[in-house]
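cron nightly-structures :: item 1 of 1
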Amino acid sequence: MASNRCKPILIKPMASNQANTGISLNDKSPFSGSGKQVPAALSMMVDSMTSMVERAKIDLENVDQRARADLENIDQRARKDVALLDQRAREDIQKVDKKARRDIAILDKRAREDHDLLLKVRKARESTS
């Protein structure tokens, strides 16, 4: 049977945030002046900044990609909406055209009837005179 004993937790001492008063800005680094060696803190800072820049670049690319996808979706929806509006407009135009043709046919019929009536009245006047 396995033992249910708790394992001891090791607590590491916290790093001191106190400034080292023994270091001056004018003191030379313990590294060589050849420029090939970089202090560890500076190296860590550069690595951290490089990492942040890389993450920002990746985040920006992701945002750009999402924006392009959103724009494509909006464009597709807009095209569908325009197609639907175009279809409705064509249907409306056809309805208006049919009504206009019916109205023209009615007006043409009335005009012919009026013309025929005028001809009859004219003939009747001529025969009485």
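cron nightly-structures :: done
The chain is about 70% helix and 0% strand.
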